[in-house]
Write a structure and sequence with these properties.
By secondary structure, this protein is mostly helical. Helices cover 66% and strands 0% of the residues. It is built from 10 helices and no strands. The protein has helices spanning 2-14, 21-32, 35-44, 50-69, 71-83, 89-102, 120-135, 144-155, 163-181, 185-197. Helix 2 crosses helix 4 (50-69), helix 5 crosses helix 7 (120-135) and helix 7 (120-135) packs antiparallel against helix 8 (144-155). The longest helix is centred in the first third of the chain and has 20 residues, at 50-69. It starts with a helix and ends in a 19-residue tail after the last helix.
Length: 216
Amino acid sequence: MLYQLVEEVCSQIDGLDIGTNPPLLRDEIDRARPEFREQVAKSFFDSNTEAVATTLATAAALGILTAIKQTPALARELLQVVKDADEPPAFRCAVASVLCYLVQPRDLISDDAPGGYGYVDDAIVVRAGYVEYLQMLPNPKAKREDEDELVNLLVSVVPVEAEPTLRAMIGTLRLVVNMMVGLEEEAAEYMLHEMIKNPLAMTTPQGPIDSRLTVS
């Protein structure tokens, strides 16, 4: 069940068009976080002209969409860890707990929000979980600081109402991963089996909150 659901979400994100979606994503960010456009413009030029702001906001949206489209690769890498029977059960259990967040049907932001905006929260959760996975490796191939910076950028464009919950989820992920790694083998095997069989049983924040800040 977990394997199938992860691939379904990954396929949906893979289908996002990098050529046509940035303006749509920019518009969704404008609705959710209107201050973001001004912040981007001022970070490059001390100018508030509409043309400059729009150009830079579109470029920023392209960067954010690129980060969103990296989510499937990260999720599939984590999924291979879960499937690897040679890995310790507690390690696989910790990684599976991250993927269980990804496949929840009631995301904080509706997945069908235009421009890929609905996958911003998924990208945040998977990348934050991936950071925790890297910290379990002897020689992490990415620095936590670099990954955290990207996570913070993504969080800065979510609806204001969703930001506290997402930041809390990041903290919870760290606690959950650390807890899972410390499980005894028998307990880890049981929890791993349950997460693979029924990942939707994991408790997550309820949603969605759409890009127009309307709670459904």
